[in-house]
Amino acid sequence: MSERYPFIDSDAHVIEPPDMFEKYLEPKFRDRLPYAWAGYQGEPLAFGFELRIPAPGGGEYVMPFGRDPLTGKNAIDAHSHFASLEAGARITLPGQDEAYAEFARQGFPPEMYKVAMEQTGIDYMVVYPSVGLLATAVPNLEADRAAAYRRAYNNWLHDFCSATGGRVFGAASVDLRDAEEAAREARRCVKDFDFKAVHINPVPVCEHRLYDDFYEPLWNALEDLNVPLAIHTGTGTAADEMLYYYLPRLRTAQTTVAFTMGNMLACTALIMGGVLERHPKLKVVYLESGAGWVPFWLDRLAASVQGGFRGLEIPGLKLHPMDYFKRQCFISADPDDPGIPQVISYLGDDNIVTATDFGHPEGRHYAVAVKAMMELPGVSLESKKKIMWDNALRLYPIRP
Question: Residue 197 in contact with residue 394, Cβ under 8 Å?
Fold first, then answer.
């Protein structure tokens, strides 16, 4: 490539240090101090993380990434609400050593993010959690304690981003048990920390669902702040009961389903539940789920089974699901995602951004992300530029 094109990484990851909660959790909640570990170990490098959260009344929720559940019956015990998990192999993918050896040796400090960006041609990163994807996705966790866990992470993330030289931006994490508190935390993180998004794990953790009036304070806050709601799922959570009921022991399939179906379900809730109808300025980005599901799913939401409702009005909605998505939503696609041309054909090229997943095993190709996007067949150069830069600037309030 003789000409350089700017690139915004819409979904990279931090690797939280094991002493994060010890240093950042408010004293009031340290009687049940979580244990969190994430990182790369061994030869060759293998990635894994583990999160242990003390449960009310004793015991703990154990959520180790890269380990299989037992049977569907025992994975989420109906009486104890604990996740029962057995040890298994950690994730090792080809090329991890070359991609991350030096980062892993240093513990993925903020200074190394600047190095990675300078070496790869990435201009900005928006970063999301690792163990934080699971930190409050547990049943029966008290709302005030769950919110405190999120504040601890957000405070740590602010210090992390402050040390990166102004090119790495945080996405605030909020818990879904208390919408008023989530709205307050969103305002704090955007106004005080200059975070560029607010992240949720959409797995239900209480009796409320995303389309309930309960969450109106959070949607109102995000509209006022002009930052997107970022849907980023996780896998291995003690709250995702359906996943283990349908797919016990199928670890790889669980990960695929948790990320893709999790985003599809969240998309359904926000569109069909009328959230985007009521909040026309609310922006939403769906992360780490591929692009190809978007055309199929939006058409199917309107058409229903066998296309029986195609062309009919949807009760409570004034627009077709596709129109809500075009107006308010973005899909984050892999740089080499073959689904991108399908999305452009169906929606146009204004609703696609791209990301490397830097920090995680799947993101080991971050160094060639720009090249992969530029070489993607079936997509015009103009569209590629929009996906790498223009669309991300409309999604995230980044001021170059």
Answer: no
Return the bridge partners of 171, or none: 197
Distance CA 58, CA 76 (A): 16
Could you report the per-residue pLDDT of 71-124, keeping only the tens digit for each? Answer: 333 232 322 333 333 333 467 777 888 889 999 999 999 999 999 999 999 999
Average pLDDT value for residue range 332-348:
97
CA 336 to CA 349: how far, in whole Å? 15
Listed in sequence order, the residues at least 6 apart from 210 whose beta carbon sits closer than 8 Å to its beta carbon are 202, 266, 269, 270, 273, 275
Which pair of tokens denotes residue 231? 């849907």
| Single-letter residue type at 252 | T
Contacts 24+ apart (CB under 8 A), 82-86: 82/55, 82/238, 83/138, 83/236, 83/237, 83/238, 85/236
Return the structure tokens found at 22: 């010890």
* Cα 212 to Cα 97, 219, 275, distances in angstroms: 45, 11, 9
Task: Tell which phi-psi region holds residue 23, choosing left (phi > 0), alpha (psi between -120 and 50) or beta.
Answer: alpha
Residue located via tokens 């892999």: 334
Q: For 227, phi and psi rounded to 5 degrees?
A: -120, 150
How far is 218 from 199, CA to CA, in rounded Å?
A: 12
Place of tokens 């080809």: 94
Which amino acid, one-letter code, is at 256? T
* Cα separation, 208 vs 221, whole angstroms: 18
Strands (E), 88-162: 124-128
Domains annotated for the chain, with CATH where assigned, are 107-395 (3.20.20.140)
Q: Position 95: which residue type? A: G
pLDDT > 70 in the chain, percent: 92
